[in-house]
Amino acid sequence: MVERSNFKNWHRSTLILIAVSTVIRGILAATTEFGNDEVYYVLYAMFPDLSHFDHPPMVGFLIQLFSLDLLLRSELFIRLGAIAISAFSTFLIYRITKKVSSERSGFYAALLFTASVYASVIAGLFILPDAPQMLFWLLSISLLQDSVVKSPGTAGAQKKLLLAGLTIGLGMLSKY
């Protein structure tokens, strides 16, 4: 019974961490002007293509998705994809670490991930190619962890390996 209550506490603490950091990122996104790179990536959403001069299309697709095809053009909505990805990535870090060690370790990994400048600001707040790349990289790790470490050789493992290949490909469409 103690194990279950500890799980609920660490899981709840992780969800609170994600909620608080997401609200803070939302406030910062709404009150901070675009940087040079972000303005450039808005052009990717305005003129979608499978490849641009120096980056693949995923950041443009992400902006289109979360700004409703640029209907909502404020800084918050342009950056909303990065904010949502950061929240989900924090949960993935928790989940990956929990499987390897414990719920407590998962929470601390999520806390360290949230405290890092790269995960919280560069890829978690600003709309840059690093945001979708981070998501697909973590999804790939999670799927590979499930298929290779947890249950190798099963039909479910094979499906997860195929999904891992797909997420690796999507990661390449984020930043190559």
What shape does the CA trace take? Answer: flat
Report the sheet with the most strands, covering strand number, pairing sense and barrel closure: none
Specify the structural class: mainly alpha
**Total beta-strand segments:** 0
Radius of gyration: 17 Å
User: Can you give the mean pLDDT?
Assistant: 91
Query: What order do the SSEs take from the amino end to the carboxyl end, as H and E?
Result: HHHHHHHH
- How far is the first residue's CA from the last residue's CA? 48 Å
Helix content: over 70%
Number of helices: 8
Q: Which parts are unreliable, with pLDDT below 50 for 5 consecutive residues or more? A: none
Task: Note the beta-strand portion.
Answer: under 5%
Question: Mind sketching the topology for me?
Answer:
Elements: H1 2-31, H2 36-46, H3 58-66, H4 75-100, H5 103-115, H6 117-122, H7 130-150, H8 155-172
